[in-house]
Design goal:
Length: 289
């Protein structure tokens, strides 16, 4: 099953939103992707949910089908775009699910628009315990954190095969599948031999800085019990992942609303883009419907 596409008016233009209708009366789930991603990062999770939910998966402003949307960026502003998506479809409350940076935006939505939230799930993100030192080069910080996914933003590619070869060499994507291929192709912009990522680098810089600042702290204000899924391997398939067990235990002590769920045998990408990861994420979402 694929996403249909609808456009939603937001400040500065139209937000592109992937849409999958569920059964009559099915609850609505909003799926929020990561910092350099697009809505197709959710395709395997969507397949696991089937028609038990109506799914709305936006391309966040500055990315893929919403790449031309201008700033301001930041988690609170992405939350406003999510609010526009709910208003456009005429839904009062929805379950909000975010992966990576999308989890920070989901947490911002849950805090700033709490009356519109039926449930909340954070997937390998949403929780910041680091800050950017004054005067730091944000591009260098993000490259250190994101590796090849950041590096590609300044690269061009001669053809589609070169683009796919770059992604297939990514250390976290060695278990390649059709969903991953569709996801990476959705980020492709330009014409040969100057193909490039669709991501607006200014959006990535602004959002990256925000997750390491005020935009990364919304999770501390969460009140509802919230599944927080963690991958044991990180963005480069390294061990430990973004949230080592000891760090996660300390965070959950500080924020009792978080329900720690370690998802074995996945990394930061395959927690949503593998059969096993997608099945676990979908099961967590079902607890919030």
């Amino acid at each position: 099953m694929t996403f249909a596409i609808r456009t939603v008016p937001v400040d500065g233009g139209d937000l592109r939103v992937g849409f999958r209708p569920g059964n009559a009366g099915a609850p609505v789930v909003v799926l929020v992707h990561g910092i350099t991603a697009n809505h197709l990062s959710w395709s395997m999770v969507a397949d696991q949910l089937g028609e038990d939910a109506t799914l709305l998966a936006p391309d966040l402003r500055g990315r893929a089908g919403s790449a031309s949307l201008p700033g301001p960026f930041g988690m609170a502003n992405h939350a406003l775009d999510l609010l526009a998506v709910l208003n456009d479809i005429g839904v009062r409350r929805a379950t909000i699910v975010g992966h990576s940076m999308g989890a920070y935006a989901a947490a911002a939505f849950a805090v700033n628009h709490a009356d519109r939230v039926a449930g909340l799930v954070l997937v390998d993100g949403g929780v910041s315990f680091a800050t950017v030192p004054d005067g730091a080069d944000i591009d260098a910080v993000l490259t250190a954190l994101l590796g090849p996914t950041m590096k590609r933003l300044s690269m061009t590619f001669a053809d589609v095969d070169a683009w796919l070869a770059f992604w297939k060499a990514h250390p976290s994507l060695q278990n390649w599948n059709d969903a991953i291929e569709s996801y990476v192709l959705a980020d492709l912009a330009g014409v040969p031999p100057q193909l490039r990522s669709s991501c607006n680098i200014e959006a990535i810089r602004a959002d990256g800085a925000d997750t390491l600042g005020a935009g990364g702290q919304f999770f501390r204000r969460l009140m509802r019990p919230t599944p927080w899924l963690r991958a044991p391997r990180g963005l480069l398939n390294q061990v430990p992942g973004l949230y080592p067990d000891a760090v996660a235990a300390q965070i959950c002590t500080e924020v009792p609303a978080l329900r720690d769920m370690r998802v074995d045998d996945v990394n930061h990408f395959t927690i949503t883009m593998s059969e096993h990861g997608a099945r676990v994420v979908a099961a967590a979402i079902r607890t919030q419907l």
